[in-house]
Amino acid sequence: MTDRELSDQAIAVLVDVARTAGRDLNAGQRLELDRLVSDGLVAVSHSGDPAGQRHYRLTVAGQTALDQRGVGANEA
Q: What secondary structure does DSSP assign to 9-59, as a single string?
């Protein structure tokens, strides 16, 4: 994980991944998702979908980032 400060959009994407495994992201959010994956906050889930759509999950570091901001999956 890098030491960069997470933007509000990054936090929103982390929450969306926690809620829906990243299935409902728009194009801008997908760019942020790519950064979060490269930072080690989100990972591709190995429990794929029969339609071939990728699912994502928070890593321990991603969950810790949300915890430090005081954000839960039912917020944002």
A: HHHHHHHHHHHHTTTT--HHHHHHHHHHHHTTSEEE-SS--TT----EEE-
CB atoms within 10 A of CB 8: 9
Model confidence pTM above 0.90: no
What are the pLDDT digits (tens) for 3-57? 568 999 999 999 999 999 998 899 999 999 999 999 999 999 876 666 667 899 9
Question: Residue 15 CB: number of other CB atoms within 10 A?
Answer: 19
The class that CATH gives domain 8-69 is: mainly alpha
Amino acid type, 4? R
Which of 50, 46, 49, 55 lies closest to 16, judged by CA?
55
